Amino acid sequence: GGPIVTDQLWCSKPEIPADVPQPPSQCCPPMSASPPINFTFPDPTGPIRTRRPVHEVGPEYMAKYERVVALMKALPKSDPRSFHQQAQIHCAYCTGAHRQVGFSELPVQVHYSWFFFPFHRAYLYFFERIARKLLDDPEFTVPFWSWDIPEGMQIPSKFVNKSSPLYDAIRDPSHQPPKLVDLDFWQVEKNLTGEQQIQQNMWVMYKQIVSSASLPSLFHGQPYRAGDLPMPGAGTVEVAPHNTVHAWIGNGWYPNGEDMGAYYTAGRDPIFYPFHSNIDRIWEAWRDIRQAAKGNNRSQTDFTDHAWLDSSFLFYDEEARLVRVTVRDMLDIKKLGYRFSKVAMPWATARP
Ligand code: C2O
Known about the structure:
mainly alpha, di-copper center containing domain from catechol oxidase, three-stranded mixed sheet, binds CU-O-CU linkage, disulfide bond, oxidoreductase, metal ion binding
């Protein structure tokens, strides 16, 4: 099979198990009156913006992110740039609301496949463009929550302040700060000392990014092409720390661990975006580590299959225009106009 293509006309009610609270109607985006436009890169002479870690940006910068979420929440729910609709994008691409163009019986699911990293990069990229427009701040970037280093191993305080727009009531109350995140959380509390938890987290990172991810398919996930059934297999990082941290934040007493622990609600928690900003950074980190080990050969880190490169997803931009984005468009963050500020990666050498 070739690339997987989604289209607004091929979106319908998601497949959510009947024993789970159903979303209000469905999670397809509002219809665009005009067909999607193809993605084009920003002006190459424009600024390269830096995404920085939450624990370094300071309260004033975090107040900007609070404003972004407040402004998005203030937009009418029908506006594709509203917080509600931004969360719905995740619901639509992650519960099978979209159908493969040409295969109406086949739901599209970006998880547990080689689309995991590029889809979420694109999702966050458009979220960020909308944020800049609403803030009227051309420099704004979504800070990353660096849960992979000791300085970032708690939920950042802004997110647990009940009067902040970043607060979400549907989280596990026992995982509030100063509790340290468990990157290998499988619904069982380990009750380690702080030092032990940090060490464990380092080992998880080393294993998932360095020692067990020596091939693109191991890191990214398995090939998923037109005509295939969804979820062929996840990459290392998607399973842990990605899924494990989702589950650790969500409320385990809810049927599906809502909000962060369930695909259809994860995007409703404002921590989702800084969390995924760090996932996006880890993609870059893995690529740097692999390319350094393999003589800067891109085929060691990117698939060359056109079924990957030319698969496409739809997002609304800051002007509420529907844009078609391919995986190929998402492979060079410099061309997308951003970079990550360097933070230490103590796990890169944490061989157990
Ligand atoms: Cu689409 Cu972190 O999940």
